[in-house]
Amino acid sequence: MDTMRERFAPVVSQLLDEDPRVAVVLAEIGAADFQETMRRHPDRVVNVGIREQLLVGAGAGLALTGLRPVLHTFASFLVERPFEQVKLDLGHQGVGAVLVSAAASFDWPAGGFTHMAPGDVALLDTLDGWTVHVPGHPDEAETLLRHAVAAGDDRVYVRLSLQANRTGRAVDGHRLIAVREGRSGVVVAVGPMLDAVLEATEGLDMTVLYATTVRPFDAAALRRATASAGTDVVLVEPYLAGTSTAAVGDALADLPHRVLGLGVGRQELRRYGTVEEHVTAHGLDAGSLRERIGAFVTARRTVSTGA
């Protein structure tokens, strides 16, 4: 299976051929994948070099001319390093772009903490008007990329990762998908966390919802699920733990509920290791998830029975 990032350049190159509004801005990362496309569209494929603030500023300038810019580099260099430009050049000026990241929270452990971005979605949450897609499979990444580019002049973040579920699902850029139904709580699995969540909750009487678009958050689907499964909600996100707990709280504000936010911890892991070792260290492997979700459900039952 190809990776999400391997799907990125062919899809966007095709969009450049099809739509004269589409432009691509790169900061050296990924430029080799666009060499042929750059020859076909030299005025709409721009490599600014290792200048991430300029990456966003140039993209905003292209948007001001009426183009639909797609900006790409590692997440830490796309959201964190040029955050002022994301906030002002795009948000303050009221223009849109599609930000497509790579490396996710810890896709390249050998790159060290400079190349890790577990706080990217939480950081974008401080800004208004962003749509955030977190695909869990290359097929979903392609669908959501096309959806993002076609989304008028909106500001959209597409978070690509090496981690992926075994199979893709039919996503539409809006809805939570019900994958499993139960009566003892709801687990919301975000993007590449779905396979681990399904394994972790096997045999547990819990509803599993799948999210590949986390902003805006599909509050209506969550409320429908809690009507039969109850209002104990577990969020399993591939980035900073608790990033979406406020969104769940808002969705269930008028109902008594409990929320457990699982994801990447705040403590910096200072050993390179492997992606799998980072997943385990943050308690996001299937075994750890089952233990943590099980303890959460058991605690509710203990309180309700007075044991």
The overall number of domains is: 2
Q: Please, how many helices? A: 12
Please give the radius of gyration in angstroms.
Answer: 20 Å
User: Globular, elongated, flat, extended or rod-shaped: what is the shape?
Assistant: globular
Using the 3D structure, state the CATH architecture of the largest domain.
3-Layer(aba) Sandwich
Helix content: 25-40%
- Beta-strand portion reads 15-25%
Q: Roughly how many Å apart are the termini?
A: 49 Å
Low-confidence region ranges: none
Structural class: alpha/beta
* H-E string: HEHEHEHHEHEHEEEHEEHEHEHH
- The first-level CATH class name of the largest domain: Alpha Beta
Describe, in plain words, how this protein is organized in 3D:
- Helix 10 links the parallel strand 11 (232-240) and strand 12.
- It is globular and about 60 Å long.
- Helix 1 (4-18) packs parallel to helix 7 and helix 8 (194-200) crosses helix 12 (286-305).
- It has 2 domains: 4-159, Rossmann fold; 177-305, 3-Layer(aba) Sandwich (Rossmann fold).
- It is an alpha/beta fold and 307 residues long.
- A 7-stranded mixed sheet has the order 2-1-3-4-6-5-10, with helices on both faces.
- The chain contains 12 helices and 12 strands.
